[in-house]
Amino acid sequence: MPIVASSQTTSQTQQNAPLRWILETSDTAYVVGVNRLGQVVLCYWGQKLPHHDDYPTPPDLGEYASFNGAGQRNPEEYPTHSDLKYIEPCLKATFSDGVRDVRLAYQRAILVVEEETLVIVMQDEHYPLKVFLFYRVHAQTNIIERYVEVQNASDTPITLERLFSAQWHLPMSQQYVLTHFTGRWNDEWHLHRDMLTQGVKVLDSRRITSSHHHNPSFLVGEPNTTETQGNCWFGLLEWSGNWKLTAEVTDFDSTRLSMGLNDWDFAHRLAPDTRYVSPSVFIGYTKDGYTSASHALHDMLRARLPHPDIARKVLYNSWEVTLFSVDEASQMRLAEVASALGVELFVMDDGWFKARNSDSAGLGDWTPDPIKFPNGLQPLIQHINALGMDFGLWLEPEMVNPDSDLYRAHPDWILHFPTRKPTLARNQLILNMARTDVQDYLIAHIDALLSENNISFIKWDMNRNATEAGWQTDGEPREVWVRYVEGLYRVWGTLRERHPHVIWQSCSGGGGRADMGILNYADQIWLSDNTEPTRRLPMQKAFPMIYPANTMEAWVTDMGESWLPLAFRFHVSMTGLLGIGANIIQWNDDQRKLAQAHISTYKAIRHIIQFGDVYRLQNAYDGAYSGVQYLTKAKDEGVLFVFRTHIPQPTYPYRLRLRGLLPHVQYRVEGFGTKTGAGWMNTDCVFDLENFESKLIRITLMGD
Ligand code: GLA
To answer: I want to staple 694 with a disulfide (CB 3.0 to 4.6 A). Which of 16, 386, 568, 580 is the partner?
Structure first.
């Protein structure tokens, strides 16, 4: 039983025995309680301790002068905008009489034992507004899930103006380093480590997707936290739309983080007798550094994927070779070459549907172009299946070109303000996914496509962000940001239910929609349109800080082909989900043989990469040397990749130590010999690499 109430769960706090709930996972504990002021506060978040009495009681600080009330000073679990509290709140609301603050008091708690969930119920002092704080313990993966439900039991509406999922507090008076990711189209996944200082650091998206620019995830360490040791608190949000993270260091040197729906241009009208449930955040703690945080996240995320246990296939995608010039004959020819290389899944990208000869027409009309595919998609699919491969297709369901039958029939279906000219980006506009008629249209059309054709894989793309996010509704138009994502989830979820075998890829002009929410629908993510391998190396180091390698698509394309050996390009892609997007027709026999060999090696090791644990090894020369190691969960098989990009002379060899091995058993490391795990982990492997050289090295357990 991972949740323990250390005094009775009653509707009232008791004088001498403060209410406290201890949520324990395999290695960690999260303890919340109610202090004498009736505030629900954090008592402890860290390593699991031997006895329940070891955990602190609820903190109970008073006001500080006349300027900062107790609310400001105590680590409240769900602070609201009210009283002498000037920290970032989780909830801000306006009642129908114009009152604009919320005062919540603890009411009761419910333990839902079979769901390993604690629910703390809070009630506004005056209005029939209730807030339910949910804590679900994922004991095995050391993760705690938090979300809230807000309930309006009155007969007048309440307008929610901020609704975060949770707030967390780190131990007082310490310094913290926030690890987060930034980017832009074609240049995603820059890893940043920023010291948190007094004030508020905000990361967010206002674009209707989670965005290329920041990722809804965080890792917070202390200045001395490393890959292998030190405190690390981490989390991510299960949401694919506008989101916000605030990391605040107060004037009292307390550090708090909160995360949830973005309150920018946000309002939610909570009608009488209705409730609203926020997205979940999943958080964890480890004392063992960043690698251990990644492993916890990977275990949790992998188990929740739509197809958790299926090894991902090696795919070919023709986009970078053909762009919009696809047709039956040329796709068949590419498929023949791909199949001879060992490719298992052939994906036809953009350009296959009616009038789609450039990016200026066709989006919205999801029927095969009659000139390029006079007999529909069947002949191509049959040919691909006969070659022993699955067939996949590109779609961009949320979009429409003004030059399309769909837009001509339903110009009002797009996000727009009636008096403003809609802004075109890549010649396209965004369908308002908040509308049920739009959702129903997409469900019907894509369902038909999937029912009539043997399609095993869909690349779901989204190539622009929202502007003029107007919604002509009788309700609150600013709900569109959230309703859009709910509509997207409804469409995707319905299609997934009807076609459970289909594997989906999330792409948004590269990595614009890489988040935990989308991984309930998509099994894999396109990180970036930038496939240049030396740029991919740091990106593919950053992405798996949070997301597991079996969601990380990595293709060998023609980018970098003039100066990077084909083996290097393959090795970079083999550290994730190997795919090919190069012009394989032009490859000579030697290149094809090399590709065949790498694909066949990948098939032999993919279980280690896709289902094992990743270890980021030390970088040297500012990352010009890098190494990544994967090890099965059983620690009986591993693979090591090492890379050297460009280092001017003179250089020294690359030295690294393996990690994660069982100390007392023997492992053979290809090219280096046999030693115990302890031996490999405490002595250097030395690599003399040339510029742009790489190596793939197998690690095999030999026994005692
Ligand atoms: C986006 C994707 C690419 C490709 C094109 C097609 O840019 O990221 O991989 O699918 O769209 O238009």
So the answer is: 568
Q: Which atom of ligand 1 is closest in space to residue 459's alpha carbon?
A: 10
Nearest to 478 by CA among 317, 226, 242, 704: 242
Could you give the C-alpha distances from 326 to 349, 363, 392, 455, 529, in angstroms and in order? 8, 16, 14, 17, 19
pLDDT digits (tens, 9 = 90+) for 287-311: 999 999 999 999 999 999 999 999 9
Segment 327-332 long-range contacts (CB within 8 Å, at least 24 positions apart):
327/371, 327/372, 327/373, 328/372, 328/373, 328/374, 328/375, 328/379, 328/380, 331/380, 332/380, 332/383, 332/384
The string over 500-510, giving b where at least 16 C-beta atoms fall within 10 Å of a residue's C-beta and e elsewhere, is: eebbbbbbbbb
Tell me the pLDDT tens digit for each residue of 402-414.
Answer: 999 999 999 999 9
**Ligand 1 mean position, distance from CA 461 (Å):** 7
**Residue 254, CB-side half-sphere exposure with 13 Å CA sphere:** 17
Rounded to two decimals, what is the model's pTM? 0.97
CA of 509, closest atom in ligand 1: 8
DSSP codes, 228-276: SSB-EEEEEE--SSSEEEEEEE-TTS-EEEEEEE--TT--EEE-TTEEE
Q: What share of the chain has pLDDT > 70, as a percent?
A: 98
Active site residues: 461, 529
Q: What is the average per-residue pLDDT within 222-235?
A: 98
Angstrom distance (rounded) from CA 406 to CA 403: 9
For atom 8 of ligand 1, the residue with the nearest CA is 509
What stretches of 446-591 adopt beta strand conformation (E)?
Answer: 457-460, 503-506, 524-526, 552-556, 577-580
pLDDT at 661 over 60: yes
Among protein residues, the one whose CA lies closest to atom 4 of ligand 1: 319
Query: In angstroms, what is the span from residue 527 Cα to ligand 1's centroid?
Result: 12
3-state class of 182 per DSSP?
Answer: strand
Comparing CA positions, the residue from 615, 25, 47, 44 lying closest to residue 287 is: 47
- Rounded to an integer, what distance in angstroms lies between the CA atom of residue 4 and that of residue 113? 10
Q: How many A from CA of 582 to the centre of ligand 1?
A: 14
* pLDDT value of position 17: 64
**Per-chain mean pLDDT for the chain:** 96
- Give me the pLDDT at residue 70, please: 84
* 323, 463, 555, 559: residue to mutate for ligand 1 pocket, most atoms within 8 A of CB: 463
Residue 521 Cα to ligand 1 middle (Å): 19
Q: Which residues, judged by CB distance below 6 Å to any ligand atom, belong to the binding site of ligand 1?
A: 319, 349-350, 394, 461, 463, 507, 509-510, 526, 529
Tell the residue nearest (CA) to atom 7 of ligand 1.
509
pLDDT in tens, 188-224: 999 999 999 999 999 999 999 999 999 999 999 999 9
Q: Which of 209, 316, 323, 350 is the best mutation target for the ligand 1 pocket, counting ligand atoms within 8 Å of the beta carbon and taking the most?
A: 350
Question: Would you state the structure tokens that stand for residue 226, as one six-digit string?
Answer: 């490393």
Q: Whose CA is nearest to atom 6 of ligand 1?
A: 350
